[in-house]
Amino acid sequence: MHISRFKTAAAVAAMTIATLAGCASKKYVRTRVEPLEARVDGLEKKTKQQAGSIEELERGVSRADERAGGADFKAQQAAREAAKASELAGQGIEQAKEANRVGAEAGKAAGDARSLADQGIRKAGDVEQRMYLLDNFKLATSEKVLFAVASTRLSEEAKAQLDAMAATAAGKRRYVVEVQGFTDKTGPAEFNLELSRRRASEVVRYLTVSHKVPLHRIHLLGFGSETPVADNATRDGRRQNRRVEVKLYEADLTATASASTP
Predict the structure, then answer these.
(1) How far is CA 193 from CA 152, 178, 180, 241, in A?
(2) What pLDDT was estimated at residue 247?
(3) Residue 116 resides in a domain
């Protein structure tokens, strides 16, 4: 250490002084050198003490660094936990929004279901009213329109028959028209069924276009070769079976009045 070198240098200086002086006594040297050595020893002791203090301070600084490092780690961990909690909170908000959306859709579906139920009730009432009215209709007149083989074209005679029926319907306030198509036994059953429908449709078209009969008052059905009115083994029988039956029903006011009377 620097103190040791300084001590050595002091001793050398003292010996040099003693040599140069020549006449100085050993006692004189001791009186000069010993205080110097004591001062050097004290300085060395203080230096050691200071070195120990510095070491202790360094250990304190190291512990402080460790504590600061631990605090920084805990702070980073807390920040990560806070970020995770914030993410979970955001997910919770999104889930709440989704739940609200699903609830709103469910409410709308329930409203739509109630609306459909109300419509169904109203339609059921309408159907019931229609059935009641049909039960209180009576046959006013009917016509049997004939067709040529495999044909759907209305003849002039057939048009005249429909004209007469339309004139009868025009004077009535509540009525319905029933149109049923038929064929003879000639040809396949599927062909005859379609042919009977086409013949009935031709009658309906004539009534609605030429006489403005409302379509909602007309009921149409094709029966094919079923329910013949004559023998299909004869020519005249087959001609009678190639037909469309048109029936006009009017409201039976007497029955309606009787039903409404308490």
Answers:
(1) 13, 18, 11, 13
(2) 97
(3) no
